[in-house]
Every structure is written in C-alpha cells, then in structure tokens.
Amino acid sequence: MEKHLGKTTPGSPKGYLKVDLPILGSLAQHETSAGHRDGYSHDGVGINTDESENDSGLIGKILIALSWVMVILTMPFSFCVCFKVVQEYERAVIFRLGRLISGGAKGPGIFFILPCIDCYARVDLRTRTYDVPPQEVSWTKDSAESTLCGLVPGTYMTLTGCFASVTYVLTKDSVTVSVDAVVYYRVSNATISVANVENAHHSTRLLAQTTLRNTLGTRPLHEILSDRDVISSTMQVILDGATDAWGIKVERVEIKDCRLPVQLQRAMAAEAEAAREARAKVIAAEGEQKASRALREASEVIGDSPAALQLRYLQTLNTISAEKNSTIVFPLPIDLLTYFIKAKEASDKNK
C-alpha cells in the first residue's frame, strides 16, 4: 500500500504530492511514534527483535531439530558451513525461518548459523559518500511550490518510479540553476536497514536528490550562492531525520558547485562591471573635487603675493631644463618684462 502526504497537486501525475520541509524533517519522528503505538520499539521499527526459537511453531521446531541433527552427523565438515566471520566494520543480520533471531545483529568476529534454516545479510557500517547529480532548480524571492512523492519509509518503489518524472521545480519569477552536492552517510542500525527498507542506500540517495531540489527551490539565488553552509546544515538535518527510520545516519552534506546559465552569467558579469565603473567614476570625481579645492587655495595664496608667482615660474623653468631637452620653448610673461622696464626707468631717473 502506498502512503501519501498532503494533497495531490492538480494536473500532476499520479503519486505526486506537495510536501513541506517540516514534513520531511518529521518523517522519522512520525514513523517512530507510530511504531510505539503498534507495540514495537525503535530498535526494530515494524519488526520484533525478541522472537526466539520457541515462537517458530511446531513445524519450525521440527526443522530446527533436523538441522541440528544434520550438523552433528556431518561434523566436522558442517563447521565450514555453520561458522561465518564478519569484519570489524561489518554486522550480520540473521533470519531463522524468515524471523529475526534474538540478540540483534551479530559481529564483529565469528558467529554460528544453522544450514538450510538460517540466512544472513552482511551490512557494511563504514561511511559512504554519494555525489548527488546536478539538479536543475528554479528560485524565487517569494515562495516555491514543488511536487514530490511520498517519502514515508515503505514507499521506496513509489519514490523510485516517480522521481524520474520530476525535472523542474516550478516557481514564480524563476531562474534555473544547476546545483550538485555530496552526502556522507553510514548505517547506524544494521537490523533496521535490512528489515525496514528494501535498499537503504538507494533510498537514501533518492531522498538526497529530492531534498536538495526542495531545499534550494525555496531560497533566493543570492542565498544559494553565498549561504552554502546554511543550506548544507539544513539538508543534513532533514536527511538525518527522514532516514533515521531506515537505520541510516547522515553525517555531513556539502554543496559542491552551483552553475548558472550562460545568459545569467553574462548579465551578472555586466552588472558587476557596471558597478565597478560607477565606483571608479565616483572616486575620480571626488579626487577632482579635492584637487580643485587645493588649486583654489593655492591661487588665493599666489594672488596675495605676486613674487610667489614669479618664483613658481622660475621653478617650472628649472624643472623643464633638468629633463635634458635640446630645445625648450616657453612664453615670456609680460609681468616679468614690466618689472624689468620699471627697474630700468627708475635707474634712468636716478642718472
């Protein structure tokens, strides 16, 4: 039976649902509380880890007894089949006649199984990395509406079937960006990861893709480009809560790259260049304003003392001659000639 969250969106394919971020974050809590109401603990959501050989019924007891007889009769060759070894980073989840045996997962080290009666699943507890494929996401400053499948544990096949059809997150005033990320996760409960979900790793990866799209689709573009740490933390919390019922622990989420369309890159580059040119013009205008003020003050000082103008003129001539020019052309100021004429007239009168 497929489980659904929220209401189906009009015009959406069958199985598409409108899901809010708080719902994603509370999936594990919802399923765990439901498990307590039904009489099982979080150690085995939907399963009973306290089953023993005495609960197998008459036929089960007979089969177990026959298996023990076969093991005893074929000793020591049966030891090659009955004893198994798992590594330090592995655990073995054992099923006896379809039921989980008491004691939970076995390992690390050696453990015993009954041939033809027991079967086991080997679970790797090491941290895995998953590169989330680039997601085409549309952004808006107001709000975003997205359609997702039900993400409740147990609806893995529904999620797998509909995710391929979800290509874009439709938003208002949207711009499409391509974002990819990397997710670090590990199996925290081997029993739950085997008994509660068909493929815990594949389900976690699909959930990571949909969570990335849903998280980025509700944020403006400038936040996607600048607040990557906040987005990573939000995704980590949502994924960790949703996969808790699958026995998965999401340790870290990192946004790797955010690629913009070529047209948008050109527009942003032109905007940045225009802003830089505007700042440069403002700085140049402020410099000219300060220089003009200094020149005005200098002209006032020179106007109060005519001799200062002559000294400035002679200083300029000295500077030009110091550059070793072969020919120097400069105008002869009338004021200087007037000074010499007056000096000659004064000398003539004295004579």
UniProtKB/TrEMBL annotation:
GO terms for cellular component: cytoplasmic side of plasma membrane. InterPro entries: Band-7_stomatin-like (IPR043202), Band_7 (IPR001107), Band_7/SPFH_dom_sf (IPR036013), Band_7/stomatin-like_CS (IPR018080). It is found in: Membrane. The keyword Transcription regulation does not apply. Signal peptide: none annotated. Its main location: membrane. It comes from the Eukaryota. Residues 81-272 form the Band domain. Keywords: Membrane, Transmembrane, Transmembrane helix. PROSITE patterns: BAND_7 (PS01270). The keyword Transmembrane helix applies. The chain crosses the membrane at residues 62-86. Belongs to the band 7/mec-2 family. This is Band 7 domain-containing protein.
